[in-house]
Structure formats: C-alpha cells, structure tokens
Amino acid sequence: MKFLKKFSILCLTILAIAFTSCNNDDDGSSLVVTLPVEYSLYDVNNSEVMGTITLFNNDSTDVVVTIDLTEGTGNNHPAAIYFDTANENGAKAVTLNAINANGFSSTGFGALDNGTSITYLEMLEFDGSIKVEMSTTDNTFVAFGEIGQNGFTGNSTTRALEEANTSGVNGVVIFAERNNGEALVAVELDGTTDGVDHPVYLMNGSIAAPGGIAATLTPVNGTYGEGRTSLTSLDNGTAVLYNDLINYDGHLTVQTSPSDATTVAEGDIGSN
After folding, report:
1. Rounded mean pLDDT of 43-71?
2. What residues contact residue 233 under an 8 Å CB cut-off, 6+ apart?
3. Domain check: are 49 and 138 in the same one?
C-alpha cells in the first residue's frame, strides 16, 4: 500500500554520533565535542520531496543545520525551523537558507530570528520542526521534519483501518513515539474523496462494544488521504503519551464528512 511505503521514513530512528578533538592553546588542551544528529524529512501533500536533516556544531557557530533531499527537484525551496510540531501552527523560529536546485541547504546560526541566543545542546531539546515550501511564490508545504524533543525514537505501532458501510475506504493508523514520550497519530487512507475532509475520532471501547468520543483528531484530507495529529491529551484534558495510546481501550473511526457521520473506516487499537 502506498501509505506504508510513504510513512516508513518518518519512523526512522535518529542517528547520533560523537566526535571529539583536542585544540591546543597556551593554557593547555580544550575538548570540543560534536554530536551530529539526523532526522527524517518526510513528504506531505503527495509531493514526494523527502530527505535528511542534520544538526551539528563547529568551532565558528553554535548550530549548523543541513537539509539534503533524496533527489534534487531542480527548484529552490524555502525552509525554516518552526516552534511546535510540524502539524501544529507554530510561528517561524529560524529562517534557513533555501534548498537549492540540487537539493541541499546549509545554515549556521547562534540565535533565533527574534534575537534569542540558542546553543546546539538547546537545539537538541528544542520543541520544533522544519517545514519546506514549494517555492518563493508558492508557500504550500512539501516536506516536514520533526526535530529536537519532537523527533522520533523509532518506536511505532500500526493498526489496520478496515472499510465500513461498503465505502471503499481503508488504510492504517500509525502511532509514532517522539523523543519526549508523546505521540504522533498518523492516519493514511486509500479511497478517500477529493476535496472532502473526513472527520476522525478516537473512541472509547472496542468496535464491538463502543463508548463515546475520547479524542478529536485532525481530519483526513480526502485529496491526499492523510491526517496527522500530535495527540498529547484527550478531549477531557487527560494527558496521554505514546505508551498510553498503544495500550488504550479504544478504536478509531473515520466519517464521511463534517455533515455526514456515516463511518467509512474503523479499526480497534491498543488493548483491543
């Protein structure tokens, strides 16, 4: 299925490698430690733009961010670091150098756009994401990457979403663990309707013994068959982490449209 191949890059474990070197000076030797960390850049809106984000530090700047696309697109793509996870509407934190036609960008900085100083170690714990736009004249997002505490550990759980009411809609829901223990809930569907948003809910209980709505998730965009939610709490305010969700007594239901609550796909999750 196309959504499984597409989403696999998102669940890659970040890579951290330590390098040490000694710089001699009049006072003796000082130890410089560099910890390159890689994060996956995954495509959105069926753009097929994906690649790798690398964070490291060096002697001349506190932070260096590189973006290396799997394939160059022949176009320049604006890119920036944003506050919050990629599927939230956080403000821009750092404007990065545009990705060039060959698919590469490198930016060094020691402060956010607002002048706030930031170190490499602080970036490794940063609550943020990187977003890539189509072009300087089209700000449609074509790729996202979660960084810092929002990066992924590599732990994930996938459950099937089966067709309901002969809708022709089916797919998967993927729970991916972040470095901070929270979860991204990604719904990937085939057979959705172009131009229609399909509401998605985490329900209490199993499909066979259903309860009420536990959490309202981001609707699935019918044109692309995707819906992603950073789920940190239920609708009643109860906090939830990745480990809570993969053991939750619940199921997921996808509806036809905001005006038609007919279920088009559903699947048990967690303990069910």
Report:
1. 90
2. 215, 239, 240
3. yes
